[in-house]
Design a protein that fits this description.
The complex is a heterodimer.
Chain A: E1 2-3, E2 6-7, H1 16-22, E3 30-34, E4 37-38, E5 54-59
Parallel strand pairs in A: 1-5
Antiparallel strand pairs in A: 1-2, 3-4, 3-5
Chain B: H1 8-15, H2 21-29, E1 31-35, H3 39-51, E2 55-60, H4 83-94, E3 99-104, H5 112-115, E4 121-124, H6 129-139, E5 144-148, E6 161-166, E7 169-173, H7 186-205
Parallel strand pairs in B: 1-2, 1-4, 2-3, 4-5, 5-7
Antiparallel strand pairs in B: 6-7
Helix pairs in contact in B: 3-4, 3-7
Classes of the chains: A alpha+beta, B alpha/beta.
C-alpha cells in the first residue's frame, strides 16, 4: 500500500477512516484520493483498503 | 487621465493593446468566483481583474481590520468596511466596467452548494483549514476549484507549488506553513495568490 508516495505497512481491510486516525491525520482537514480518485468524506468508514491501493492525503493548513 | 475612457470597448482597446486579442476576449468573457477575500482572495481578485477578467462573484463575511493591512490589498480608508464592498471598490478602480456580485455571507456545509451554484471556476481562498477541506470535499465533483493549502510566514519561496489533483482541482501552497504557527507577511501570501491566479488564467485560456 502506498501513502503519499511511500510504501507503508497497513493491515488490509482497514477502513480509510481508521487509516487516517492511525497515521495521525485530522479527518476534518484532509482530502483523500484513493487510486487517483477523490473519495467522498461519507465513504471513509465503509471504504476498506487493499494491498495494492495508492492513497494520497492532502492536508489543509490555516491561513488565507 | 484615465477617466476619459467612455465605455468597455474603449477600455479593453486601450489597456490591452499589446496583449493577444483572442486571449483578451476569452478573459473578458470569463467569470470567476472568489471564496474568501483575505490575503489570498484580495490579491487573486486584483490580479485577475487586471488580467482582463470582467465578471466576479465575491464571497466573504468579514470587515476590513487594521491587522489585515500588512498583507491584504486593502487601504486605510477601507478599515471597518465589509471586505465585499472594499473589494468591489478596488476592482472597479482597476476596471470601471467589471461586473461584480458580492455576497457578505459566512460559508458553511449547508449553504456552500447554493451560494456557488451558478459559478464554474472557484478560487478557494478561505483561512480556516477545516472549512477549506469541507468546501473542497463538497464542491470538487461539480466545479473547477483552484484552492490553497493555507499559507503563512516568509522566505522559502521555492517551496510554494501548485499541485494538480485532477482536471477540476488544483491546490497551491507550501502545504505546511500554518497561520497558527507563523506570522503572515505580504510577499508569501501574494506568492500563493499568484499561483492561484495563474492557474485560473491558464484554465480560461486553455
Amino acid at each position: 500500500m502506498k501513502l503519499n508516495g511511500e510504501n507503508v505497512n497497513l493491515k488490509e481491510g482497514l477502513s480509510v477512516f481508521e487509516m487516517l486516525e492511525a497515521k495521525g491525520f485530522d479527518v476534518e482537514k484532509v482530502l483523500v484520493e484513493l487510486n487517483r480518485k477523490i473519495l467522498a468524506k461519507n465513504l471513509y468508514n465503509e471504504t476498506r483498503l487493499n494491498f495494492d491501493d495508492e492513497i494520497e492525503v492532502v492536508t489543509f493548513v490555516g491561513g488565507g | 487621465m484615465g477617466q476619459s475612457i467612455k465605455n468597455e470597448d474603449e477600455f479593453y482597446k486601450k489597456i490591452y493593446k499589446n496583449v493577444n486579442a483572442q486571449n483578451v476576449k476569452k478573459l473578458k468573457m470569463a467569470h470567476v468566483a472568489i471564496m474568501g477575500l483575505g490575503g489570498l482572495g484580495s490579491n487573486v481578485a486584483a490580479m485577475l481583474c487586471r488580467a482582463g477578467i470582467s465578471s466576479f462573484h465575491l464571497v466573504d463575511f468579514d470587515d476590513v481590520e487594521y491587522t489585515n493591512l500588512n498583507r491584504q490589498i486593502y487601504k486605510m480608508r477601507h478599515v471597518n468596511m465589509a471586505k465585499t464592498d472594499a473589494m468591489t471598490e478596488i476592482l472597479t478602480e482597476i476596471n470601471p466596467f467589471c461586473k461584480i456580485q458580492a455576497d457578505k455571507i459566512k460559508i458553511n456545509e449547508k449553504n456552500v452548494g447554493d451560494i456557488f451554484k451558478s459559478d464554474e471556476i472557484i478560487i478557494e481562498a478561505l483561512d480556516d483549514a477545516k472549512t477549506k477541506a469541507m468546501v473542497i470535499n463538497a464542491l470538487c465533483d461539480s466545479k473547477k476549484i483552484i484552492a490553497s493549502s493555507g499559507i503563512a510566514g516568509y522566505g522559502a519561496s521555492n517551496e510554494v507549488k501548485t499541485r494538480k489533483i485532477n482536471e477540476n482541482l488544483y491546490i497551491a501552497g507550501d502545504f505546511h506553513s500554518d497561520i497558527k504557527d507563523f506570522d503572515t507577511y505580504a510577499p508569501k501570501v501574494a506568492l500563493v495568490a499568484a499561483h492561484q491566479a495563474n492557474i485560473a488564467i491558464a484554465t480560461i485560456l486553455g
